[in-house]
Amino acid sequence: MPGIYGAARALAARWTELEGAHGMWLWALPLSRRVGSVAVWRDEAALRDFIGWPPHVEIMRMYRGRGELTTMAWRSETYDPKGIWTRARAFLEHPRCEPPSEALGRPEDPKETP
C-alpha cells in the first residue's frame, strides 16, 4: 500500500503538466487498506488524456491485480470544491447508499492548478 500511495503522490507532483486538470485530492485510510483520489477535469477529453498519460498507465500496470478499482464520474456546471468532496465522500463511504457519514473528513488543502 505505501507504494501505491507514493506513486499517487508522484503523479500529484506533476499535476500542473496536465491540460484540463482543475483539482485533485489524494486520500488514504491505512487501517482499512484503502487509498484513492478525487480529480476534477475540464471535460471528458482531459480525463481521457490523463487515463492514457504514460506515467499513469505505467502505475496502473505496475499495481494491476493488487486491489479493487472503483470509479465514478459526474458533470457539474461549477467548480465547487466543498460540494465535490461531499459528493465524492458519499460514494467512497457508501458506494451503494447515502447519506454520507463524517468518517473521511475533507482534506485540508486540495491541490489545484492555477
How would you characterize this protein structure?
There is one protein chain. This protein has four helices and three strands, in the order αββαααβ. It is α+β, with helices and mostly antiparallel strands and 114 residues long. The longest helix has 13 residues, at 81-93. The chain is globular. It starts with a helix and ends with a strand.
Strand element count: 3
Q: For the residues shown, what is the average pLDDT?
A: 79
How would you write the strand order of the largest sheet? 2-1-3
Helicity level: 25-40%
Give the helices and strands as they follow along the chain.
HEEHHHE
Beta-strand residue fraction:
15-25%
Note the topology:
Elements: H1 2-13, E1 21-29, E2 34-41, H2 44-52, H3 54-62, H4 81-93, E3 111-112
Antiparallel strand pairs: 1-2, 1-3
Short description:
The chain has helices spanning about 1-15, 45-50, 55-60, 80-95; strands spanning about 20-30, 35-40, 110. The chain is built from four helices and three strands, in the order H-E-E-H-H-H-E.
Give descriptors for this structure.
114 residues, 3-stranded antiparallel sheet, disordered C terminus, 4 helices
